[in-house]
């Protein structure tokens, strides 16, 4: 027992990197605190300007019941809503989005953008329309939901991870399931990967790395949702609610745990894939000229369907089974099929059970296949 607890403590602390921007709403008493921010008074962790014309509580609300309950590092989560008034700046896309307000270098080096997302059956997102979720303006890494613009069919119930509009991973977006995500972004090497888990499970490298231009001015990651229009969409009276929690940007080592102080189950106690990175922490101050209103409007409007090239077939969609590692902490017995068996920073099993062999998927992750 003692040994187990000690190893848990060591793993927990060894895995955590440095939080360079914290969007977890812990210091918010309500979503109306977002109104503290303005272009002339840029305070708090979020810029709040991409929303419809109604009061903030029509689009953004906070509550402990809106967070992933496994996330003990967050006091509350955020419910982000889009309704028939959620049109910003004369556009025909429904949008409610928050932008990190920070001088930290959240567009430099090797970083992890963390968040959890779920939906419920109340005000469920429409599966017949494309949604862009938690995206950068150049769309080099983002989630999407619903029927992609230009795709055939009438609806698509999957949540997808996309790189420059190409689907790299997808899963059915069931109600009441928390999806934990880390966008793994190497702004220096121009590479992105995707870490994912559900519920309280630790994050697992699920797709990537992919090479892409990781272009960001440090104020263009959008927490929230943009829904593309259909012909009658402007008049439709439906409302959608999206839930997010555990939002933060981390440098250094990836913390694969959901929240702090999570009690892992006994079969997977200390076997979280460990990874180290040689990226040094970034301390360079971003210039403030990138945050001007005119710049932001110009770049955000590139998401319009009329100006953005979209693929017409979802041909690259594939489902990926999430690997679970179940090797024990004592010694290194062979990893089970689908388990991790190597990679930079990996200290666990390096052999596989009979019937599978260890194959390197990338420098950071070898898997028993
Ligand atoms: C918003 O402003 C109020 C009043 O000054 C302050 O009490 C509150 O802490 C601020 N909220 C945040 C999130 O900084």
TrEMBL record:
Residue span of region Disordered: 258-335
Cleaved signal peptide residues: 1-16
GO CC list: extracellular region
Ranges of biased composition (kind: Low complexity): 260-335
A GO MF label: cellulose binding
Transmembrane feature ranges: none
Biological process, per Gene Ontology: carbohydrate metabolic process
Domain of life: Eukaryota
Domain (CBM1) ranges: 333-369
Keywords, ordered alphabetically: Signal
SMART domains xref list: fCBD (SM00236)
Keyword Cytoplasm included in the entry's annotation: no
Keyword Lipid metabolism on entry: no
PROSITE patterns noted in UniProt: CBM1_1, CBM1_2
UniProt xrefs under Pfam families: CBM_1, GH131_N
Listed Gene3D superfamilies: 2.60.120.1160
Name of this protein: CBM1 domain-containing protein
